[in-house]
């Protein structure tokens, strides 16, 4: 029997009084969407209590099927789970339409947290289609300038209205916000500050300046892609493997611990059910070991999620971003 604590037992406080589970199961599918059902069932049975999905992923339906089964079998009650979904820039103008669709697919009455997926606005139809509008040259068609525009703020105000006037969301938050974008948003918030900012975080992309600024404003950073996404580059780092050996855990668990031990919930994804079940321990890395991991990213920072819609947002080390002008 291992004496190492479990990441699935840890919860963090949010500014609105909610508690968010420190380990969440990611549901963005590289290929096989229906397989997400079994991944969620496996995760919840293994003790995960946060589920991270999004309108954009096309997997909410399978998350919903998993939840139905888990509730019917009595494995877990709705109120024991923390379910996060996101609305996409193609529906920036109507987060209520997005959450209506999400709730239907998830077979739920409410989500615990609804995030603005990216602070940008696409020119799409009222149904949010096309999801990614492109011109003939393959460039994104925006409804607002991604660098100077303010429609992401109008969109956030609609999110605030949703929280204020409906029971469909228990909390609201943001994702992929740099410090310059967050500064603009905070100056314009009407009543409800975001409780979470979901960002790429791992030893090769520590983003300490963003974590500090969010912490100062009572916003908890949650970390996606903890092993660096496809190909899992973080798992190839010698230091990660040395620490895994020292604590007799997997390199995945070291990657999760790097986030969780600094108060950042970790959102890994894997299609390997065995990995879902076993990667739940929290090795007690020392302060010095965490600093060593952090130094890897200070010396050689690398961002692995570089989707075109992230350009112009002021996110550092964004490959192919020829738009952003504001870095701090
Ligand atoms: N808010 C946002 O904009 C945003 C963006 C990206 C992600 N997310 C959320 O974060 C979740 C996780 O992100 P992610 O999927 O990009 O990153 P991730 O968890 O860092 O990486 C997942 C990849 O690592 C591989 N992997 C994991 N453990 C491995 C091992 N031991 N050996 C070999 N390969 C391994 C997985 O392959 P296998 O399937 O073969 O294990 C998968 O391809 C997503 O599902 C989503 O919920 C949010």
TrEMBL record:
Pfam families per record: Aldo_ket_red
Domain of life: Eukaryota
Catalytic residues identified in the record: 57
Residues that bind substrate: 117
MF terms in GO: oxidoreductase activity
Site (Lowers pKa of active site Tyr): 86
Segments forming domain NADP-dependent oxidoreductase: 32-293
PANTHER family: ALDO/KETO REDUCTASE (PTHR11732)
Protein name: NADP-dependent oxidoreductase domain-containing protein
Lineage, opening ranks: Eukaryota, Fungi, Dikarya, Basidiomycota, Agaricomycotina
């Amino acid at each position: 029997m291992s004496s190492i604590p479990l990441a699935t037992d840890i919860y963090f406080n949010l500014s609105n009084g909610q508690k968010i589970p420190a380990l969440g199961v990611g549901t963005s599918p590289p290929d096989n969407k229906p397989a997400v059902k079994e991944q969620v069932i496996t995760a919840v049975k293994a003790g995960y209590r946060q589920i991270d999905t999004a309108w954009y992923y096309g997997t909410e339906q399978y998350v919903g099927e998993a939840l139905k089964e888990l509730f019917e079998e009595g494995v877990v009650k709705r109120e024991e789970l923390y379910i996060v979904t996101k609305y996409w820039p193609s529906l920036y103008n109507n987060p209520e339409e997005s959450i209506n669709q999400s709730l239907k697919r998830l077979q739920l009455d409410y989500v615990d947290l609804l995030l603005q997926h990216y602070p940008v606005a696409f020119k799409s139809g009222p149904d949010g289609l096309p999801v990614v509008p492109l011109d003939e040259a393959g460039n994104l068609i925006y409804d607002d300038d991604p660098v100077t525009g303010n429609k992401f703020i109008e969109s956030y105000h609609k999110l605030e209205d949703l929280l204020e006037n409906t029971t469909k969301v228990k909390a609201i938050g943001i994702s992929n916000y740099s410090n310059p974008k967050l500064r603009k948003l905070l100056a314009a918030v009407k009543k409800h500050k975001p409780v979470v900012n979901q960002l790429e975080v791992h030893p090769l992309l520590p983003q300490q300046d963003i974590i500090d600024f969010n912490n100062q404003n009572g916003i908890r950073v949650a970390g996606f892609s903890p092993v660096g996404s496809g190909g899992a580059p973080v798992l190839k780092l010698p230091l990660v493997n040395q620490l895994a050996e020292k604590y007799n855990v997997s390199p995945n668990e070291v990657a999760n611990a790097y986030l969780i031990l600094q108060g950042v919930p970790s959102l890994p994804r894997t299609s390997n059910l065995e990995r879902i079940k076993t990667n739940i321990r929290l090795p007690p890395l020392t302060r010095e070991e965490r600093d060593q991991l952090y130094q890897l990213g200070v010396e050689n920072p690398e961002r692995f999620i570089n989707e075109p819609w992230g350009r112009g947002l002021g996110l550092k080390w964004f490959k192919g971003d020829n738009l952003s002008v504001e870095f701090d």
